[in-house]
TrEMBL record:
InterPro entries: Murein_DD/LD_carboxypeptidase (IPR052062), NLP_P60_dom (IPR000064), Papain-like_cys_pep_sf (IPR038765). This is Lipoprotein Spr/probable lipoprotein NlpC. It comes from Pedobacter duraquae. Residues 1-22 form the signal peptide. The keyword Lipoprotein applies. Residues 43-165 form the NlpC/P60 domain. SUPFAM superfamilies: Cysteine proteinases. PANTHER family: ENDOPEPTIDASE NLPC-RELATED, MUREIN DD-ENDOPEPTIDASE MEPS/MUREIN LD-CARBOXYPEPTIDASE.
Amino acid sequence: MKCTLTKITILFLLLGFLSACSSRKNTATVRTPAAKAAEAMASLKSKDLYRFITDWSGVKYKLGGLDKSGIDCSGFALLLERDIYGLELPRRSRDQAETIKSKNLDQLKEGDLIFFSFGGSEVDHVGIYLNDDYFVHASTTRGVVVDNIKLPAYQKVFVKAGPIKN
């Protein structure tokens, strides 16, 4: 009887322990969009690019703007490519789109340009690819930000992407 009672007690203790473990909430870190964007920034090969983006992050959008009081997407791309890579670009995004060698999205590398058409068939927006599907751009509503190219809003207006032709 004593042996059976001991076995039953051990069984209940074991079941209690296992049920306590299973009732714990999953404490794995939830990767929010902001955390994923921060990871993409932290993974940049070019620390100069990292500093450039963090320096401009949050600067408001201003059509035709080219300084910290306000900047548009093509101005941001122009300054970034010039200051980080020593490459010259035209001022307008549709003209910038003519300077690239097109690639598929899954072939992009840090610093490649990404073009969109929000207003119809013509290119009217540009961003710069970072890594892991993230890019930086001057958003008309949020200023200079890092976003995910896989978001449906960008997928449906994507036109082309690639490096600047040498």
